[in-house]
Design brief:
This is Dynein heavy chain. By secondary structure, the protein is an alpha/beta fold. It has 13 helices and 8 strands.
């Protein structure tokens, strides 16, 4: 009886030992990758201060400008940081510092071009404190915002509509996104409290005043503004209230869009499979 018990214990130990060896052998291949990841994280931490400083400058100042100007300005900032002995990335990319790969994939699915200029615009929108005003003569930002916020019941308004203030009040109260499209070089004065986020506490609730009406303010509320003007001139009192963004189409962005159109027409099965893989990959990364 005791012999049988001892034999069972030996067999159990041998099984556990074999499983442990298999596990260690399987994880051994990950050692190199983990070591490389740890080294990369250490390098990022070392450059963190300078990279965040440059990223903050891009979000605050470079939105209205074109790609060549942005690239030149970033090079000058990198050089200035080096002269001041502030460590930063020599090949600085905004998406590497503030970009979320899962979020960027969802933007691309919603219609945002995959070129660096458009991705940087999306990152600026999500990180800026002020509501975005997008210079969008080709309507690519307009379509992207509509697709991205479609599930959140986005409201689309224009300043020429009579009831746009009522729609805006409802969206603020229920925390829904609003797209104010086709604006000119001047904005309605009634929008000023919304642009400046002039909220206050009233009877224990967070509120905002629109004209003569006090509306309860939901922090989930989001406002997007677009204009079709190619070269608008906004006065300083408007420019300081919004985040100006240049969404005029770029050659690389146009190439990406044309390629997508050709694939969708010629091989719709490949386009569907690609989108399904992107969604699945994004879901897997969220789970991890």
């Amino acid at each position: 009886m005791e012999f049988q018990v001892m034999s069972d214990q030996v067999t159990d130990c041998e099984t556990k030992l074999k499983r442990a060896e298999d596990l260690i052998g399987g994880l051994g291949g990950e050692y190199t990758r983990w070591s490389q990841t740890a080294k990369e994280l250490g390098d990022k931490y070392y450059r963190l201060t300078g990279d965040v400083l440059i990223a903050s400058g891009i979000v605050a100042y470079l939105g209205p400008f074109t790609t060549p100007f942005r690239v030149q300005q970033i090079k000058e900032w990198v050089q200035l940081c080096s002269e001041k002995a502030m460590i930063c990335s020599s090949d600085f990319q905004l998406r590497d510092v503030l970009g979320d790969p899962v979020l960027i994939r969802s933007w691309n699915i919603a219609g945002l071009p995959a070129d660096a200029f458009s991705i940087d615009n999306g990152i600026i929108i999500t990180n800026a404190r002020r509501w975005p005003l997008m210079i969008d003569p080709q309507d690519q930002a307009n379509k992207w915002i509509k697709n991205m916020e479609k599930e959140n019941n986005i409201s689309i308004i224009r300043l020429t509509e009579r009831d746009y203030v009522r729609i805006l009040e409802n969206a603020i109260q229920f925390g829904q996104p609003v797209l104010l499209e086709n604006v000119e070089e001047k904005l309605d004065a009634i929008l000023e409290p919304v642009l400046l986020k002039q909220t206050f506490k009233h009877a224990g609730a967070l509120c905002i005043k629109l004209g003569d009406t006090v509306v309860e303010y939901n922090n989930n509320f989001r406002l997007y503004i677009t204009t079709k003007l190619r070269n608008p001139h906004y006065l300083p009192e408007i420019a300081v209230r919004v985040t100006l963004l240049n969404f005029m189409i770029t050659p690389s962005g146009l190439e990406d869009q044309l390629l997508g159109i050709v694939v969708a027409k010629e091989r719709p099965d490949l386009e569907s499979e690609k989108n399904a893989l992107i969604v699945q990959s994004a879901t897997n990364k969220k789970c991890v």
